[in-house]
Batch of 4 targets.
Target 1
Amino acid sequence: MKEKAKILDSESLNRSLMRIAHEILEKNRGTAELCLIGIRNRGVFLAQRLAECIKKIEGQDVPVGALDITLYRDDLTMIAQQPVVHKTEISFDIDDKNVILVDDVLYTGRTIRAALDALIDFGRPKAIQLAVLVDRGHRELPVRADFVGKNIPTAKNETVEVRLKDTDGKDEVVIVEKISS
Amino acid sequence: MSELIWKRKDLLGLENLTREEIEFILSTAESFKEVSSREIKKVPALRGKTVVNLFYEPSTRTRVSFEVAAKRLSADVINIATETSSVKKGETLIDTGRNIEALKADIIVMRHNYSGAAAILARHVNISVINAGDGWHEHPTQALLDIFTLKEKLGKVAGIKVSIIGDIAHSRVARSNIWGLSKLGAEVTVCAPKILIPPGIEQMGAKVTDDVDRALHDADAVNVLRMQFERDESNAFPQQLEYFKNYGITEERLEKAKKSIIVMHPGPINRGIEISSEVADGANSVILEQVTNGIAVRMSVLFLVAQARDNAVASSR
């Protein structure tokens, strides 16, 4: 693994989140019926950060949930490392809500496909919108994001690493290149 | 997170598992517990997989628990009760197993009256085998759900004191619990009339007593076992009333124990023999929570062995 470029630093990452929060509020006309559900692991922390931004703007609390999609994946046998099943924690009703699904990186779209299946098992939201910090392209399914922090064109042998102070000690987004062994 | 990679296609017992493996099953089960509280109690993780429940001994709760667990993972479940099958016509265990494999089933959950039967079957088939009780040997998922319940109630397993009271000699539940609890650092005491204490149980890491009040004295939890009168071939068992008087878990006995003592029982309970109704239904009892937790633990085991086998098949391609 070789670090190629830093795409977002702490300041620009926080500005992106603040802008997305504004866009979410604009599109949904405020916080009524709004909830945020993050995809484990980093999506959950991003959802919490977005909720903080929304609170700063509107002074309103928005419910935040955590979704683990391991059990809904279509590629369980293709991932090399042990799939670890984490808890799904959605303590509120999502029926007739505008659900903002939050993830760190949008890539093939398969995670989002799995997350949509999982969400539908919890109820019938009025709408589901997708917010991602980075869209790196290379879609394999017809999925697009409603809110994007930054579009980053990448090659397939690169990966985008989102680091958050909650999980990694600092906020940044970098592109790393896989060095073929 | 976890560095552990689960590689076992079978779950035969807790004796040969590491502490890390046991903890991994339990932490995975914690995540699965939430599924049963949803309105739609189902996830697609084992969609397209077939689970065969092969029971050579009567069982309701374990079989139903495995069936519910498999169905909540979207697997298809087939139940074979051997009284109504070709086993009656003399088919051997290995032939039965190979036939089930030829049906392209993925997991066999087996209860058998011979110790070691699950291990024999696992050696002769490539599909997964989960031991749902083999003779007097092991009943790993029961012990796992007991430990899961203890961990949930007490917040930890290391350092806690657990007393297992009842027919230790004939109990696979006791054996699996001793292996599992000791590996996780709990202190286990077994208590029974001397005739029901098997030789060598101390070597498994358990303390032994025939004094029930001593076993209860400073225990954080007590696991009450059913008296298996149907296994008493030598007529050496104490009479039911005599057993209740000397070993039955009653409110009077619990008054001398810790106030917070947790009372467990793997079921089915015999009220008035090994436990009084007041205790079984009382505030310290977690007997029905054990049943609920059993589903999460079995979902975890089914999921992990299925993953391990899929990965093994994928990497051999």
Target 2
Amino acid sequence: MTPAAGAVVSWWPAVAVALPLAGVAVSAAFGWTERRRDGLLAALAFGALVVALGLGAAVLAGRTPEVRLLHMTSQLWMLLRVDAVGALYGATVAGLGLLALVYAFGYVRPGPRRARFFAFFMACLACTLGVAYAGNLLTFLVFYEAFSVLTYALVIHEQTPAAVAAGTKYIAYILVGGSLVLAGVLLTFFLAGDLSFVGGGFLPADAAPGQLLVAFWCFVAGFGVKAALVPLHGWVPDAHPAAPAPFSALLSGVMVAAGAFGIMRVVFDVFGVALFGSLGVAPWLTALAALTVLVGAALALGQADVKRRLAYSTISQMGYLTLAVSLAGSGVMAGGLVHLVHHAFMKGTLFFCAGLWIHVAGARRLAELRGVGARMPLTTAAFTLAALGMIGVPPLSGFVSKWWLGIGMLEIGQGLALAVLLAGALLAAAYLLPVVYAAYFAPPEGRAPAADRAAADGRAAAGPPAWGGAREAPWTMLGPTLVAAALTLVFGLGSHLRGFPLAFAERAARAWFGGG
Amino acid sequence: MDVVDARPILAPFVSFLCAGLVFAFGRSIFWRRFFTFLAAFIKMGLVFSMLPGTLRGVVYVYEFVEFTPGIGIGFRADAYGMFFALVSSTLWLFTTIYAIGYMQGDRDRVRFFGFFALCVSTTVGVAFAENLLTFFLFYETLTICTYPLVVHAETREALRAGRIYLTYTLIGGGFALIGAVMVSATAGTLTLAQPGILTDDVGVVTLAIIFVCLTIGFGVKAGIMPLHGWLPIAMVAPTPVSALLHAVAVVKVGAFGVTRVIYNVFGAELLGELGFTVPLGLLAGFTIVASSTIALTQDHLKRRLAYSTISQLSYILLGAALLTPLAATAAIVHVANQAFAKITMFFVVGAIARTTGKKYVSEIDGIAARMPISMAAFTIAALSFVGVPLTAGFITKWYLALGALQADAWWFVLVLIVSALLNAGYFFPIVHRAYFRPAKEPWPPFEEGRRFETAKTLLFPIVICAAYVLLLGVTAEVPGMPFSIAQVAVESFFAGGGVAP
């Protein structure tokens, strides 16, 4: 274990993971009122966010909090260590997790499955934080696998045949991917005798190139499943519409990003930039990422289901991250990291809005959105803001991250990558703006078909009236949506401020690329 | 360092004595339980009292009789034997508790508990056998003692299973005997105390015949394909028997035997030159994948577990066959890891059958609502078989895979990954059904005055074993845990060369 600069032993990373984990017990507690349970869960998630932000501040102050958790054998131990990129991702997870949790209080219908939803939700949140703060490959693998498997219960939450089918597809993809990651971890240990992340990588450059290549592709294929790299993306468009909206938001916003985060860790903290460059795999990874950006966006165009459309958008947007990694330039990587955060809150907003449309208006498909803009003005405004951000309209956060991505690409002379970036943005406009158009400008032709259906199966009786007098969703759901949308603006306007993602991203890029 | 001590012979003798007392006084429930528990505790005490010495490198030996120089009955508690004895005697205690609950009101309990004790006695005898003759003696006795337990129900099906079991194992025993005689003739000794007693100056053909005979002889009980036929059929036995004998004692004795043959009869160095272990490894690799694939199709819970056992045992054989220190460590540790996880599963399946009468995978939809603790334990064991980190199975998988890479057998890493996915494929649907499917019909309510989902004697061993599966995964290297003993054993196998860091 190489001690990092400024390493301090600190239990706070473990606390950040433990707080949401305690929520599992709270959810399972019998005999409590739902209000009391919800309040406690929110407090725990808020606590995790505070700790995550505190860890971020510590990292910016030049410290590296770390703690050894379990010592299994002389080769295997669990280590939490917060570096710049971990702190950034962790704060994003905690932030979006809190918003999604509050949103879910209103969204998830009361019933016996409600407690199960929150138990698994909190466990997933805890494990994703664990991924963020993992200090070695084993710890990463433990938390990564754990939240991947726990996600299954949330994907099939509705227990409709479609949801169960999506869940089966999901778990099959994820288990195969996880096995490949394990193979990569094994090979890494075999070659290096170590697993702890180090800024410049720790794999010996003189190892057999064949074995290094096998390890690399095992990692990329394994994490690529989660990161939705085309052609490993099959589970994404099925799992997202099946899951309840608050979890779709978390899944798309931070959990898919965990795959990209894993690729990042492997390339920069396991292989290191130099070895990665000399392996000659970068062009292939670039091609794969570019394909993901374009194919994901192109497939999004044809989707009638709004959540499905957003899921394809996630595939495309995650392609940017892998693209940034593969280009291995410090500027473009900083842009990629910033995009990870900005995308999380934008995509969170979009899924929150899609969920509100389903929950309040029963509108799942594009054609059912006619006139929803007039009925639910705040929700639709939030969607529009996030959609514009996703396309990259200044001064929203999406513009900022794409700007830095683009500048970074030009710095290292990757004009073709810039073309992919711009094409992705154009396609984003093409698949997101029709949703906005349908919501605002498509004339409502009498009562929408979905409202009839909702009224027919009696859902109109419960909750707000389905279409006729529908206004906005209750504040527990609308509030997080608006906060997430506001963050799109805040991250755009304040991007250069200390404590905002760019400061972390630059620090991370320095650790990976040295100097610059 | 060898120390003369009576404990290696006392440990098997205690259960032997217990069996006699149970047969004599067992009609009274009290005395039956009293003797069984007393023996279980004394035996555990005896074995555990040797543990500190073993960790220091002390080997306890006791020579019983010597017929002719070099040929006799002797006992020797080396690290590997200690490892096996610790696992068997610990699990005997838990299985006894479980069996008392499970067999309540069943027929012929005197015979059942008597032979049960005899089986454990012989298992520990095998563990502490100083030479192949002693080993063989106990090995064959175990075969015979298990028969009354397999046919316990005395139905046509049970009797048929018993016949098939005897056919397989007695023919296997014959092969083992031929092998042992040839070893004696070529090496002039039968001792298992050295890292290899054979040398290559007797000719490759002779050595090959010896290897094949001994591997077939012990491989039958280890269920290596195509010699596995008896194992799924023997699942007709009562669940405690399936649990202890078909997850621990009988099958592990086979795997233990093969390991002894590889490391103490031939020796890693000689086999490395001869290359006999390569086909054995391939066969084990095939068994791992093939029996897991068959397990996917089994609807009967215990049969699914049986095929899983066949697959898991070949992990041990393959780990031993790779001839690298890390793989050998994994093979030994897996004896414990597999035992605790599989016995947990058998216990749970038996508890489900006793509580609800359900025996098929397709019948247990929603059972987790009725038996939450049992299903949680089952889930832990399932995770361990898939090899999820923080469970026992991960430790095995990690060291096996590293050992395979050390031996340049990268294909085996692939086998491990495929096997893990297949394990997920046949265990996760059970977990899914139990937790996420609504019950087809209401489950029987708790019995009058019961606070727990099933009898306490059934539940207690389940919880302990499941907890130990986690402990094995998290604190593997704490001195006294199986991993540390395995390391001592491996050091003796690879004289001079310890476990790689």
Target 3
Amino acid sequence: MPRPPQDTTAWVADRIAETTDASSTKVTSPFTFRVNRKDHLPSFEVLVLSASRVTDEILDPLLEDGRSVSFVVNVPKNGIWTESGIATARNHDCAFGGIGELMSAIHQKLDDVSFFVKKENAFVERGLAQHDNVSHFDQEYDRVYTVHRPGMKSLRVVLLNEYELTAEHVRTARTNYGPFDIVLMTNPNGTPTKDALDTAKTLQVAILAWRQFLGRLGSR
Amino acid sequence: MAIYAGVRSNTAWYGFGSFFRESRSFSDIDLLAVCADVERASAIRQEMATVCNEWPIHLLIMTEAEAEETSFIQSQQCIPLLKAESRR
């Protein structure tokens, strides 16, 4: 039997209340809780989801009821944010992510938490925007970008932030996102295992670190 | 239930990270499953899907070769939770 949403919300609120930068939390509905912060920073509302794929169909009804939500948190660690889910969160001026990202957002002490952007995505998007061989890029999922290059084939790129990148990570990415060209290792200390490299070879996928990726963008 | 299915299939389970170190603050629960091969690793991911969709579980699945190659169990001081059944 699935866990009732109010139990999940209360559980997340308890975890956030334990962090050093939150003074307290208060559950305000089955899907929301309020975070009160230290240092006179404004409190804010969090919407809690448990979805394997966050879409507009899931998010819209929860954000359309007039709540002033600043952050949408999805509990599953492997939950996927689809393009429509990301767009819906942004259209409602909400930041989004998992519990770790919510903790980061609180720790950053932003006056307005809705401006929070995950470091990993911000770094990659800045690098793509500044690259001479990139005309534009589309974010299809939170971890998937299609990179368009003038006069060259577009590249579909999956971001994986694992310290130990395993064969199962590569396979699961393929299952979740369909065919792609590149796994971009966004963890600077990340290393693929031999099995991961073998799996990538079978799937005709390149596993690249950041500098290798920047070089790949310039080649056919 | 899902973990039990893994045990039956010669999978060893470990805990690691802040939750198992009894840290006051944790954002997820880190579990490691070590199994024989990549096919089994994919099956474990599917078997664990329901529980992973309800809890913030960071499930790392390694083949036995990967666990040995990375020395992950030693470096992360993983705590054994369930031993793999001996093979017949």
Target 4
Amino acid sequence: MKRALITGIAGQDGSYLAEMLLEKGYEVFGLVRRSSNVARTRIDHLTQGQAAARAGDDPAARIHLIYGDMNDSASLHRAVRESRPQEVYNLASQSHVRVSFEMPEYTVEINAMGTLRLLDAIRDAALETRFYQASSSELFGKAATAPQDEHTPFHPRSPYAVSKLCAYWTVVNYREAYGMYAVNGILFNHESPRRAENFVTRKITLGAARIKLGLQQKLSLGNLDARRDWGFARDYMEAAWMILQQPQPDDYVVATGELHSVREFLDEAFGYLGLDWREHVETDPRQLRPAEVDAVVGDSSKARRVLGWRPRVAFRELVRMMVDADLELAKGEADKVRATDL
Amino acid sequence: MAKRALITGITGQDGSYLAELLLEKGYEVYGMVRRSSLFNTDRIDHLYQDPHEPGTRLRLIYGDLNDSSSLNQILRQTAPDEIYNLGAQSHVRVSFDVPEYTGEVTGLGAVRILEAIRDLGLRPRFYQASSSELYGKVHETPQSETTPFYPRSPYGCAKAYAYYITVNYRESYGLFACNGILFNHESERRGETFVTRKITRAATRIKLGLQQKLYLGNLDARRDWGHARDYVEAMYLMMQAEEADDYVIATGETHSIREFLDETFGHLQMDWKPYVEIDPRYYRPAEVDLLLGDASKAREKLGWTPKVSFRELARLMVDADMKIAERERAAAEREGTPGGAASARWGAV
């Protein structure tokens, strides 16, 4: 049985990846931060009944959570030693771009130094481990050319992007210096019903659903003209897995190649619910980034050619899937409000 | 003008009660929150208003005790009259898993705030959440402000650093900085991996047939348990005193885990013995001795006494968790799945 260690397992991508690896028969180890609020709702369905399911081929018995922190070298060393993974997926990060301007030091510690610590833990353990690094289209930032592929020069425009740049090169360096199987997936934006609620796409779908049910009147957003290349997170995690199955380690851009603006996202989400977003959306300059990135649109021909990867979920389908899920959530909320009214 | 308070750890048990108390007293409250892709603000959601609304007195700011620049920025922006440093990696057993992180946040976090205060030339009052875990392998019983420390975990060691650095900034720079040495304090909002809450969650879920077993560590551990709401009142009182000083806050009563089990399962008319199993993974590598606090100084100088007794505390927690368990049962019936998602939380982590 193959063993995989996932940092950031409680996040959007980590939860999809864990699901997929469990389906493929892997034993999955996940690193979780300690918090007094147990924040693992995205993986509760995978770990459910774990204590009771130690025997038999119950996927819940094949997933193990380990306390650790990307700031804590000793905990990373221990996690690697205990899990002895054939594959490590480093998805953990302070992943919010605007927030990275508020805590730049923390962001670089986790995203950049964290990656270095984890690579060293693998090196020290002398394991034949394949290492996947969650790199990001934010590396391109103020992009010199469009679309961007594996050869486009980087121009990071936020503490987040700069920290991811450091991690990217560290991975390349460990591959070249020590012959490690270490690769970067340069993933363009990828969303899902599990996207965090303060990312613009999820903020919109949740806002639209709540407005539809009368739970909210206004939705406050930043730059409506920002344009992104948005795919579905589960498709992207499939690419991450495929990247680690190649005979040779290499870096890949993963993207849909389609560009849409926040306005178009609003059209699609509100339109699907028979609403006009212009009646509800306000812009709030506090939500603008100090430095915005250009239209980033990815050219993933290499991934398509070498890996045979293609995105399955299109823009419209993605938006509708997110709205449908948030409508269910909002209905639950509406029930709760009614119950308290009684 | 309203007083301004900054609370680190505002989303935690104590932070949420303290925010409530200070808002009631008319303060403007700023709370520092860590960034997480899941929102962890359940305990203060009832206090929070959209910042776009006028007149909101509670504001949340992203920051991290590991990030000096975020602390500097927050202190500059909020210029608080009072700072309550409640942010910590606060779980003792977990501190053996993440000792370095615990030292950074729980220990060095305090000095990063104190340095930011000094750099900016501010004169806020500073409260440090110190802990009875400082006594660890105790020198005497009960423990008071004069009992020597003997911390027995990475958590205890980190808290010892934070304690002394707070005293040091008081003595070196004349800062109004005080330590509240709080013994265990629980509540309906206690984190679900702490033993008291773990027990009350499980007891109510077992009562409703949502769970069969409860795995625990050392049943003989004895603690001095009070109610968190009473304890945050003590924090506030310390910060209003004329002189900065350190105080033990405790009930002066000790009870074992077994007694807590008796009380909670008993309140639900059940016997805990058929349901409880011992899992050695929950033992601490080094256990602390009988912790029992002597809070005479706080009683005399601050006029503080605990209001909620042990039995009341256990029952409050059971009653609140029963409501949660009932909601879980309703959800499970809707989805046709037994148990609900929460059972996953009783794994090793």
